[in-house]
Specification:
The chain folds into two domains: 206 residues, Type I PLP-dependent aspartate aminotransferase-like (Major domain) (Aspartate Aminotransferase, domain 2, 3-Layer(aba) Sandwich); 90 residues, Aspartate Aminotransferase, domain 1. The protein is globular, with a radius of gyration of 21 Å. α5 crosses α6 and α13 runs parallel beside α15. It has a seven-stranded mixed beta sheet, with helices on both faces. It is α/β, with parallel strands linked by helices.
Length: 398
């Protein structure tokens, strides 16, 4: 299943040749001095091949032919501690990471105040959403209640497995309408889904209302709260919903290391649920094993107490700049974005806007959300990407 954020009708630039790509990867990881042969020999579990202490990682060359503003990746990269940990453990990737996975689960459980058996891992959050959709689809007899213009992972999976999808409109201020969702819950409902902050709108639901909704909805069926972007919001502690799981409610919390932790390409996600459902989800998402270096990087990231606080103001400044660009151009914007993007009316079909932006060297989302065919979502980028995007928007939307 392809990640919805990378589905686009706009052609991609030609990829690097395999030889160039491998060399760039080694340069980027600081492994060029180790040698490809050393990595290929298959060191034992207890051995690691490391670069000489004097070897400094060489920064990879950044391709600036296209500004990537549509996939909600972190332009700021992962924690330096995560990079160092991956370099140190790179030679161990010939082995499955079962033991490391258990250590990561213990680390997450300690942070969240739950039992390690309530944590399940996956290669990114997309497999979690897809597996949850398959489980609640109940072989075509299930029903998911959610909002329109929300993240498609669970809704799309439910439809693929033949179940019923029930959606409600957004509120007048582009928020998820929890009251309307509550009215749609019935004996047929096998799950509810809330993305908070929501993708693509970027705004959040009131934490008091969300808590009350989740408690009541979970009496009928599991309530999945997708917190992929929660670390990016202005007040994480006021909005995090892990306490619902600790209290025994039938709630699933989904998280990812792809956003604020800058690991979109390394693939590591996790969920928190009651033990029985967590075990069921773990069996569905583990497949042949979890990304070894993803686990290593995740553990190092969680141990880096300074990383998230350093990233939060960067994302905030970026989304505020995008918000100002759009409003200065007279565009209607979904208010108070709290993630890594803004959602606004471009006044033309989404695909047409995407094509015009691509002609200016800026890639944005090349698809539309039902009911919002003239709206787009643009995410925070590096400074040069933001500059190019601003210039392109001023030209395209003039």
């Amino acid at each position: 299943m392809r990640h919805p954020d990378i589905i686009t009708e706009t052609p991609s630039p030609a990829p690097e040749t395999p030889a160039t790509s491998r060399r760039a990867l080694l340069r980027g990881l600081g492994l060029a001095s180790v040698g490809v042969a050393a990595l290929a020999t298959g060191c034992s579990k207890g051995e690691a091949v490391a670069a000489p202490a004097t070897a400094a990682p060489v920064a990879p060359v950044v391709d600036k032919s296209v500004a990537i503003m549509g996939a909600n990746e972190s332009p700021f990269g992962p924690s330096k501690k995560a990079i160092a940990a991956m370099i140190e453990k790179a030679s161990l990737t010939a082995r499955y990471a079962d033991a490391e996975g258990e250590e990561l689960k213990k680390q997450i459980a300690a942070i969240e105040g739950v039992d390690p058996q309530q944590i399940f891992l996956a290669n990114g959050s997309t497999p979690i959403l897809a597996a949850f959709g398959e489980i609640i689809a109940a072989r075509g007899k299930g029903q998911l209640v959610t909002s329109i213009a929300t993240y498609e992972g669970v809704p799309r999976s439910v439809l693929e497995y033949g179940a019923e999808l029930v959606t409600v409109p957004l509120t007048s201020d582009f928020g998820i309408d929890l009251d309307a969702m509550a009215k749609k819950i019935s004996k047929k409902t096998t799950a509810t889904y809330v993305c908070n902050p929501n993708n693509p709108t970027g705004n959040m639901v009131d934490p008091v209302k969300l808590r009350a909704f989740a408690i009541e909805a979970s009496k009928t069926a599991p309530c999945f709260i997708d917190e992929a972007y929660l670390h990016l919001c202005d007040d994480f502690n006021a909005n995090v919903m892990t306490s619902l799981v600790r209290e025994g409610h039938n709630v699933v919390i989904g998280r990812t290391f792809s956003k604020i932790y800058g690991m979109a390409g390394q693939r590591l996600g996790y969920g928190i649920a009651q033990p029985e459902l967590a075990m069921k989800m773990a069996m569905a998402t583990r497949m042949g094993g979890i990304n070894h270096l993803g686990i290593i990087a995740a553990m190092a990231s969680l141990s880096d107490a300074e990383f998230v606080p350093a990233m939060q103001p960067k994302f905030k400044a970026g989304r505020e700049r995008l918000h100002k660009i759009a409003t200065d151009l007279g565009r209607k914007v979904a208010g108070n974005p709290q993630a890594s993007f803004v959602f606004f009316d471009v006044g033309m079909p989404n695909k047409e806007f995407a094509d015009k932006m691509m002609a200016e060297g800026v890639r944005v989302v090349g698809r539309a959300w039902p009911g919002y065919e003239n709206w787009t979502r643009i995410c925070v980028g590096e400074d040069w990407e933001m500059d190019r995007c601003e210039a392109a928007m001023k030209k395209v939307l003039a």
